[in-house]
Design a protein that fits this description.
The chain is built from 11 helices and 8 strands. The protein is an alpha/beta fold and about 280 residues long. The N and C termini lie far apart (about 50 Å).
Length: about 280
Amino acid sequence: MARRPDPQALVDRIERLIHVDVGRNITGLFDAARGALWGAASTFARTPSARVGLITGFYVPQGSPPAAETDGPVGAALLAKAFEAVGIPCRVATDEPCRGACAASLVGAGVSEVPIDVVAIGAPLTPLIETWRSAGITHAIAIERCGRSADGPPRNMRGQDIGSYTAPLDDLFTAGPWDTIAIGDGGNEIGMGAISRSLIAGHVAHGETIACVTAARHLIVAGVSNWGAYALMHSPRFARIGVGHCSPASMRRSIALCSRRPSSTAPRSTECRACER
């Protein structure tokens, strides 16, 4: 009889595939977060009636044109598609500047019916927190979402304060009682508070200034945050809940619509560019 592969070993192999540095000098962050993919995937195996809240959207005011990244909304949309396919309902939270990117990504992934909770910049988060609690959210997953730095404002990779374009969705992420999973690729995203600020400072340019202090129980670090989402959507099936894969066609549609969407209220999305974030 053929020996069955060890589920954790398979997930660890997937994790190694996403630990590719694309130029941000984050190898040390990979090492600090190693094993988190298995930990995150395993939480779903322990939750019989999971409900997922996805937090995403990273606005790039210095882009040409200014826009939300495709990194984050696309991964969130494909995760929603994978979870919905096995009966795990999802909803997405973002802010007004990133609304169009998130909506387009969901359309491209074929899950336009997934609810989007949109927060205006400066608006209180209490109503949204209550919405998530009433919806019975069990897992909050933040994907490529700029988070609070040590001195308060969310900062891009240049160290610039982008709080005027970024709602403090950290407060939703930590409002519980849900489990928290985060995916990031630069040190300034929600969840990076799970590793030391000094480690981020030692590896990433402007790291001491930009490091997010909001922690996640499970922090997945990837060369590109969308890769972390793709890895997570495949890993739970090795943790015995059966989440399937999304097709390359779904991925291409989601990226295309997110990056080319027409909008009268916000500029079109842009590909992730570390030098502008």
